Amino acid sequence: MAVKVIIPTPLRVYTGKQESVDLNAATVAEALAGLTNRYVELKKHLFTDDGRLRSFVNVYVNDEDIRYLEKDKTPVREGDTISIVPSIAGGTGSRPAFGCGH
Amino acid sequence: MAVKTGFPSAPAAGKPAAALSKEEVLRYSRHLIMPEVGMEGQLKLKQARVLCIGTGGLGAPLGLYLAAAGVGRIGLVDFDSVDFTNLQRQVLFETTDVGRPKIEAAAEHLRNLNPDIHIDTFETRLTSDNALDILKDYDVIVDGTDNFPTRYLVNDACILLGKPNVYGSIFRFEGQITVFGYSGGPCYRCLYPEPPPPGLVPSCAEGGVLGVLPGIVGTIQAAETLKLVLGKGEPLVGRLLLFDALAMRFRELKLRKNPECPVCGEHPTVTKLIDYAEFCGVRGEEVPTTVTNVPEITPRELKSRLDRGDDVFILDVREPHEYQICNLGGKLIPLGELSRRTAELDSSREIVAHCRSGKRSAEAVEFLRQAGFRKIWNLKGGILAWADEVDPSVPKY
Asked: Which of B93, B166, B177, B246 has the greatest number of CB atoms lying within 10 Å of its CB?
């Protein structure tokens, strides 16, 4: 199935500034594996060392949170959009939103 | 998700019936002539008590619109002072405010905008010790803070007190907005059980914010706040609104209450405020997580070596857009490209690496030392220190 993965701003630095990536996959796990194979640097930002999705990164198939579907086994259909939505803390912009202190 | 509208605690029973003066009727006439607000709604606004945590990028438009709309009591929490870099987006402040406490400048401007409302000021950092006491007297809490510990603190305090939390956050040109803890809806921890660990935050090469972005996000927070007070419309509960200013696109995702949420779930394990710095690993604050013990050279030492005519090669590891702001004439190789461009450097020459403040260049020096470079130093304090100690004509950013 051809699906589109939307990359959030904080992670675009690891996808060569691409805003979205088109992939073929049958499940969310396959799509994310395809994505992190293509952009290796992204992997540690999405997954813990033991391969679990990080708790400050949510993944949605269309507008549904996969935690309330079948998690990474959630099937995807042709034309689905997978969104990666990490936690961001910024509010004032005076110091880097994501936590960098420099 | 269907959400019952109507704000439970305003107007509170037993309060004296508020009335609008003739001047207020005129001031709010564009509210009064629309049935969705009307006199009843305007009186609800007048009796409402809203707490804005943070008076920065999000808090500025928020405060302005709440004050203009006639929210009767607005609390402001901030401990910062206005600096020049704030003025690009914090529209509550003027150039003459630079150096003033934000809270003082903000209160003054909001009182000028609307002398009929009451402004409470809390010039303090919100902490686990003071949060419940500060929040308890308000009907709606609006989170305009900028770091993970305070966001979890605000969330937990709102849940413990049963207050709605109008949430907005921004990163560069992207925003997230929702209403937490309202009418049985989800909370921040339902969305994100934990913050990112240290070391997984983007580098400062990825900083910056489009000035208008907090204006848009803060204004949406203001709209949601007014709706909660008025009890009108469909609040942004159970929905996470994503905004991308570059694509100029809004998207909406479903946000569900986590039955196992440690704060608002069926069996909460967090029943009082905790140490949020510890919970977040003190991320969101300045933490020297990286290399510190590389050979350094101070800006003055470098200046005198260059003045002597020593052959010192300057390596700038910042991003090209930063180089355009100011530079020391060094060779530009961004830190992220260094590993594949190492061959462009001559390890037989003396090299001084620098960035903005010295952190990225310390990583560069460490990397190059491991790659066999021996005559390499980090410019202590970066180009900022150079501007302070050697050449005040170099602009700081």
From this structure: B166
Looking at B279, B314, B346, which one is the last position of a domain?
B279
Tell me: the pLDDT tens digits for A14-48? Answer: 898 899 999 999 999 999 999 999 998 899 889 99
Residue B17 lies in a domain: no
Report the residue of chain B nearest A11, measured CA to CA: B202
Mutant choice from B200, B321, B356 vs A, greatest count of A C-beta within 10 A: B200
Interface of B with A in 89-128 (CB under 8 A): 89-90
B275 and B309 within one domain: no
Q: How many domains does chain B have?
A: 2
pTM confidence score: 0.86
Domains of chain A: 2-86 (3.10.20.30)
The Cα-based distances of B118 to A56, B47, B101, B106, B216 in angstroms read 38, 11, 19, 13, 25
> What single string gives the DSSP state of each residue in B128-165?
TTTHHHHHTT-SEEEE---SHHHHHHHHHHHHHHT--E
| Interface predicted TM-score (ipTM) | 0.89
Residues B254 and B323 in one domain: no
Structural domain of residue B200, as residue ranges? 22-279
A102 and B CB contact within 8 Å: yes
Hey, is the C-beta of A45 within 8 angstroms of any chain B C-beta?
yes
